[in-house]
Sequence to fold (421 residues):
Amino acid sequence: MGSMEAAELPGDEVGPPEYAVPRESLLRLFLRFLRFGALAWGGPVVQIAMLRHELVDRERWISSEQFNRVLALYQVLPGPEAHEMCVYFGMLSRGRWGGFLAGLGFMLPGFVLMFALSWAYVRFGLQTDGLLAVFAAVQVAVAALIVRAVFRIGGHVVTSRWLWAIAIVAGLAQLAGVHFGVILAVGGLVHVIALRGFGMAAGGLLGLAVAGIAALVFREQGFAGLDALSLGGATAGATASAAVPVLVLFWAGLKAGLLTFGGAYTAIPFLQRDAVTQGAWMSNAQFLDGVALSGLLPAPLIIFSTFVGYLGGGPWGAVAMTVGVFLPAFAMTLLAHDPLERLIHQPRIRSFLDGVTAAVVGLIAGTTVALLRVSVVGLESLALFAIVLALLFVSKARMLVPAVIAGAALWAVLSQALGKA
Fold:
């Protein structure tokens, strides 16, 4: 595939004569997608729209129908779909090397900026009251963003009573500290069984899961269990006493990269579990700071993994976790695009993935409880949370995500100024 000519990717129909993929030099291809990466403000919807406008509407690399079909594939598979689309277009032009360089170019601006911000965060900290107030307000805005993401992803995914049941049980299991691998496997299995017509068996399996969660809660925590389980365990401002091994950080990133079904927000419960609940190399407050910083950058939101890795293992930790997170997105496109496209069209596989994705929605909801407990404290933060959440539900502005984060920071500055007046 390294010498693949334009539009000859196996399994992709060649478009009509008016569509043609240019065979660009590797350097030109890298610079093209580096520019896309530097302009990738506003989240995946805006990023995908930019790719469509430039490469489909203006330059006519492929048809709109082919673009939609490929996008649908990457929305089902794990990984940031905008990044995977860049890898796909690069591969169309210059084979695997073109795909690698296109994906690298798209993610590089965000990685460099997040790396620099992570260094500044660790080097200078939040020593002044002003910065502490700003980051506290920004954490509230990020919590609202995650709540909105739960509704947005859930609205596309949780579309039946069985999927609702799977998502609810998965959220409870997350709060009870059940391993995410068990949660995802049970969610997928229940959905396959239910759609095969064995509703009683699927309901029984969900009932056993609920009973197991209740037994775990009452055994370990008593009746107050759900209030205290899986809510971080690290205090705000806590940091790891020793650097986390690079391989551990790479493995944490790889797991998150393999399990981000439905968008970058779905990586949050997996990285939060490894970094906060189990690894304890950062606090929930610091985790929210990383998500907030990523929302300000021209990059896929998953770039907050660079921040998580930096706090765990310094510069090499940041690199290791970033490589782990993005590796599946590169590999699935460069090595397995066509087999995966055929695989997910098999009814049983698609049913299993739908159940897994519903379970991921539940995981995000459970993790959101932990993050809300850290960020929304007091009437002022509750008011800010309500305002930001309302804006997120009613507005469709192109730069909404960075705007609400910047607005929350401005809220903190004005609040402090009025308090001193």
In short: Residues 127-420 form one domain. Residues 1-11, 222-241 have pLDDT under 50 and may be disordered. The chain has 16 helices and no strands.
